[in-house]
Specification:
- With 341 residues, the protein is of the alpha/beta class.
- It has a single domain (4-334), classed as 3-Layer(aba) Sandwich (Rossmann fold), CATH 3.40.50.10320.
- It has helices spanning 4-28, 68-76, 98-103, 110-132, 151-157, 160-174, 190-205, 265-274, 300-314, 329-334, and strands spanning 53-58, 81-88, 137-142, 178-182, 213-221, 248-251, 288-295.
- It has a seven-stranded mixed sheet with strand order 3-2-1-4-5-7-6, sandwiched between helices.
- α5 (151-157) packs across α7 and α6 (160-174) crosses α7.
- It is globular.
- The two termini are 18 Å apart.
- The chain binds zinc ion.
- The site of zinc ion (ZN) has 5 residues, from loops.
């Protein structure tokens, strides 16, 4: 891990550039949208001595649930920092939200309810972030056009140049060790694919020695036999992974460090409960048991080294690897191409 003195100096530089950074952002923003963080941050973070910095880059409010256990461990056990960028307003997908409309005592028509959902889902996300220890939320305010498998949907509907520009600034300023995306599998939401492609484009534009570990995450249900190989998304070469197998799998049933009688499924269930307006998502309680992470090839040796440093600091116990036998991270990083050995 980068030594603390160098990190402390870098933090001071970042603070000095913060005002200019925000001014530049504000000048480039469309109306009503700001990359200034929103919501109460996790207040017990010692930023100068933080051991790891992580960015979650997601399309929708509730996407962060895919890696809830890992985020909790970073913020609560490693003293790390986690920020979250949410690209869309999350107003799509309201067909299962009737119980929440009653819960929130909303009596408007469908259009009015959809408009209310923007504010409600933002608030739900901030509450979920409080559980996970998220420091800052950045809302990019792009339209959620609803369910699609097409990555082109997001490319057409969003101001992608603006997203790239602001994400580039954020990555340069914060120097995250890890950037976590939802894995862009063929069957996942098209917006997840768009966000993955945009983010990996920005990471590819960073100097090779400054690239974070870029990871794709997906959860497994208890009924699934194991993680499928993922090589990358066709027609999007930047989504190619360093190895087809996950680099790491975390079993949410692992006993918590704070008390061995408890496990990390508690955290994911708390997060799910906060997203009441997501309807069917509320039925996911306890269903997804493993968080699987793939390393993207584009982050190169710099990203692979940061991943190794991170996983060593997490000090995974044997049972962290759960019932799905995956290669230890050293051999997974090397992969079949032996690129990072
Ligand atoms: Zn999503």
């Amino acid at each position: 891990m980068i030594d603390r003195l160098r990190k402390s100096i870098a933090n001071c530089k970042r603070r000095l550039s913060c005002e200019c950074f925000h001014r530049n952002f504000l000048l480039s923003l469309s109306a009503g949208v700001s990359l200034l963080p929103e919501g109460a941050g996790f207040t017990s973070i010692d930023e100068d001595n933080s051991r790891v910095k992580v960015l979650l880059m997601v399309a929708h409010p509730d996407d962060e649930s895919e890696c809830a256990a890992l985020v909790y461990r970073v913020t609560h056990e490693l003293g790390g920092i986690v920020d979250q960028v949410v690209v869309t307003n999350g107003e799509g997908g309201n067909q299962y939200s009737a119980p929440a409309q009653s819960y929130y005592r909303s009596s408007t028509d469908v259009d009015g309810w959809r408009r209310q959902l923007v504010r409600i889902r933002r608030r739900e996300l901030i509450e979920a972030g409080r559980i996970l220890g998220i420091r800052h939320h950045y809302f990019l305010g792009q339209p959620d056009t609803g369910l699609t498998l097409e990555p082109g949907d997001g490319f057409r509907a969003w101001d992608t140049n603006w997203i790239r520009q602001n994400l580039f600034w954020l990555l340069q300023r914060e120097e995250y060790d890890l950037v976590i995306l939802l894995l862009p599998t063929i069957n996942t939401h098209g917006h997840h694919k768009t966000v993955a492609q945009l983010t990996l484009e920005v990471i590819a534009d960073l100097d090779a020695e400054n690239r974070p570990a870029a990871l794709g995450v997906r959860t497994l249900g208890a009924e699934e036999v194991g993680p499928e190989a993922f090589f990358g998304l066709d027609s999007y070469p930047l989504t190619r992974t360093a190895a087809p197998e996950p680099i790491w799998v975390f079993d949410r049933k692992t006993p918590m460090n704070c008390h061995r009688a408890l496990d990390y499924s508690i955290v994911s269930n708390w997060v799910i409960a906060e997203h009441k307006s997501q309807g069917a998502f509320q039925m996911e309680f306890g269903r997804r048991t493993h968080e699987c992470f793939w390393l993207f090839d584009v982050c190169g040796e710099s990203g692979a080294a940061r991943w190794r440093e991170f996983i060593e600091s997490l000090e995974p116990r044997r049972e962290d690897f759960g019932r799905y036998p995956v290669r230890a991270y050293e051999s997974s990083v090397a992969g079949s191409r032996g690129k990072f050995s």
